Each structure stands twice: as structure tokens, then as C-alpha cells.
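Q: Hi! First time doing this. I have a protein sequence and I read that you can turn it into a structure. Is that right? Here it is:
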Amino acid sequence: MKQEYFVLVLAHSLRGRLRRVHIPHSAVYAVLGLALLGCFSAFGIIASYGRMALKVANYNNLKKEADNLRDRYQNLQKVVNDTQVQMASLQMYAKEITVAYGIKQRLEGPTDVAAEGKLIPTFAESLADFNYLRSAEHFTVNNRRVGRFGSEGRTPMLPSLWPVQGTLLSPFATRTYPFSGEGAFHKGVDIKAPDGTVVHAAADGIITTAEPVSGGYGRLVVVDHGGSVQTYYAHLSRILVHAGQEVHRGDTLGLVGSSGRATAPHLHYEVRMGGAPMNPYRYLANSGVYRQSPAKDLPF
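A: Yes, that's right. Below is the predicted 3D structure, encoded as C-alpha cells:
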């Protein structure tokens, strides 16, 4: 049986010769089949690439959303921490008010004759108030440190000195955080001073921390004044004391700088009572500035 074929006629443009090319049907069908298979393969590759690109886009969107949620969680956690600090400070103020004005009292007498009962504090409350006033108002030295700050044995540890000569930049309590632009609780005050200005101890005490720390403080010095009172000196450029060292009011602790999270040289100063930040302005308002005694001229 003779095989069927297609005839392809080719003509030369100059010579006019004709040439016939015989192409079997099977070859044409094979070429068409390969072309069709190639089209299907190309379509599959394009579809696979499209699905992969869609998955990558979804993954990037999910990753971006997760990063946003993580940032929101960190901001909320920071707000919660600041709120806890504010609550601790408010509780301390409330305790001072209740002790000072005797608000924390109970009614003694029969419950059915409340009008005839008299208001008196309980023995436990009176004892707790006495202990609190002794530590909060008088700032006495702990028994194990008695005698280290003078021969009298008891010395008030109230911060009564500006730690550095300068002007107040940021006040205590809520402010706009310069790095995030959001509201944040400021645990102390910022005192503007040139880089390298000497920082003095606000009261007698013992150095508990004198090293770079995390959390934005940079180089930090913490002085324990007894009676649960501490002062913080942060963003120092240089620390000139060591942990465990005894310091007196006016002693040099370090130099003003911009270590940690600071936009310019200044001193971040905190006063804490029982771990709760207190407004340092109440201590700075009537405090003096450190003045170095001039050297006396000797007659010999």
C-alpha cells in the first residue's frame, strides 16, 4: 500500500526551477502533536509559577501582619508595664495620704448602734503605719549600716542635692517618647548638661549598680540610701565609682553623657521608694546645688 503524503512545492525566484518535497502525513501529525504537547507544558509551567507567586505573596502578607501584631503586642506590653509603675506610684501616694490624715480607720462598737461607735485605727494598722512613717519620712539607715555614715549612727537619707547643674528637659510622668513618638511614662526627670559634666550623689548611700545596663539607661549608677530609698543616674559617659562603694552627699559618681537611648547629652535622674518611682521634683524644688569648697590659703 502506497503511503499518503503531502507535497510541498518550492520555486526558485531566479532560475524558475520547481522542487517538490514529499512530507508524510505521520510526520505532520507528529509535529502537530509535539506542538500541542509543548503548549500544554508551557501552560502548566505558567500555571505553576502563578500559584507559586500567589503563595509567596500570601506568605509575605502573613509575615507582615505577624510583624505588625508583634509590634502592637510589644507596645501593649510596654503600656501595661508603664501602667503598673503608675499604679505602684499611686499606691505609694495613697499610703502616704492615709497615714498622714488617718483615713484608714474602722468603726468600733456594735453593728446595730453604728452612730454611737467611735472611729479608731486597729493595733495592726497603727503598727504598720508607724513602721511606714519611720522608713518613708525619716529615711533612716539600716541597722547593718549604722555607724558607716557618721558617729551619730542615724542620718537622714533624703535626697537633698541637685545631682548635676543644668536645666530640666523632660518632667516626671507621661511624655512623648522621642524614639517612637508615642506616649510613655517617664520614671524620672531629664536634666540638660554639657557632655562630661560631673554628676554628684544626692545623698549618702551605698553603690548597688555601676555598669552599663539594658533597657535604654546606658551607663547607670544606682545609690541605695537606706529605708527603701534609691536614686538612679543614667546615660553617663563615664562611671567613676564601683558597686559596694560608700558615697557621701556631693561625691562624684560619673560624668554626663548620652549612652543608652538618648538623643543628646543629659542626666536621667530617678528617685524610687520601695521600688516605685517618685517625682524627683519634690526633692529638687528645695535642694541645693553642689558647690566645691574653695581651697584655703595657708599662712605657711
